[in-house]
Amino acid sequence: MVRAGLGVLMMVVMVACSPAADLDEAPVPLGDFRLEHNIVVASKAQRGPLSRPASEEQLQAAVRGALAERFGRYQGTSRYHFGVSVEGYVLAQPGVPLVLAPKSALILNVTVYDDAAGKKLNEKPEQITVLETFGTAPIIGTGYTMSAEEQLAELSQNAAKAVERYLVRQQEAEGWFTPDITTELPQSDLPAIN
């Protein structure tokens, strides 16, 4: 009976901590943003120690899919592009319960391009490191509870959410996705200055 109750509790915690839990809600405000190109490469991805393997194609597809799912919700009129490089990953293997519960991780470099300006918004790529969702398997680790594909999908969703948080910070601090009305409107549409 106690074991069944713990199982239900763990499932509730897993759902509550899911990075994709907010995808059915309205996206957080991000100015006049629309993702046009979502380019992900993984040719230099380093496999961490004791990690399960993942192919270059698997890494690219998982990250590209998670970014498309999260940022496809934004319907602004200004087009932006992502250039993402998967730098490293760890897909945890089973460890020793209560002694060693390895954690999965994913490291990305992200560059954002402004289509209208024809330039990068961040000259230096933003490095984003994410871990598996806390609460998924706090004692035994996801090496026991998830396949490598499931771990990679969760990490990719966490990474997409982290990219969204980064873009929101940049929007608030730098006005990245706020259109400049002096360049967006034709000259005849500008208000007269007296």
Keywords:
single chain; 194 residues; alpha/beta; Double Stranded RNA Binding Domain; 5 helices; 6 strands; disordered N terminus; signal; DUF4136 domain-containing protein
Radius of gyration, Cα only, in angstroms?
20 Å
Question: Looking at the structure, what is the overall shape?
Answer: elongated
Q: Give the oligomer, counting copies of the same chain as homo and different chains as hetero.
A: single chain
Distance between the termini: 78 Å
CATH architect. name: 2-Layer Sandwich
* Rounded average pLDDT: 82
Beta-strand percentage range: 15-25%
The share of residues in helices is 25-40%
Q: N-to-C SSE series?
A: HEEHEEEEHHH
Count every helix, treating DSSP H or I runs of 4 or more residues as helices: 5
Largest sheet: 6 strands, mixed
- Tally the beta strands: 6
CATH topology name, in short, is Double Stranded RNA Binding Domain
CATH class: Alpha Beta
Please, how many domains? 1
Organism: Tateyamaria armeniaca
Keywords: Signal
Protein name: DUF4136 domain-containing protein
Task: Describe, in plain words, how this protein is organized in 3D.
- The protein has five helices and six strands.
- Strand 4 (105-114) and strand 5 form a beta hairpin.
- Strands 1, 2, 3, 4, 5 and 6 form a six-stranded mixed β-sheet that branches.
- Residues 1-17 and 183-188 have low confidence and may be disordered.
- Helices cover 34% and strands 22% of the residues.
- It has one domain (2-20, 27-177): Double Stranded RNA Binding Domain (2-Layer Sandwich), CATH 3.30.160.
- The protein has helices spanning 2-16, 56-71, 142-145, 148-174, 181-184, and strands at 33-41, 46-47, 78-90, 105-114, 119-120, 126-131.
- It has 194 residues and is an alpha/beta fold.
- Keywords: Signal.
- Residues 1-20 form the signal peptide.
- This is DUF4136 domain-containing protein.
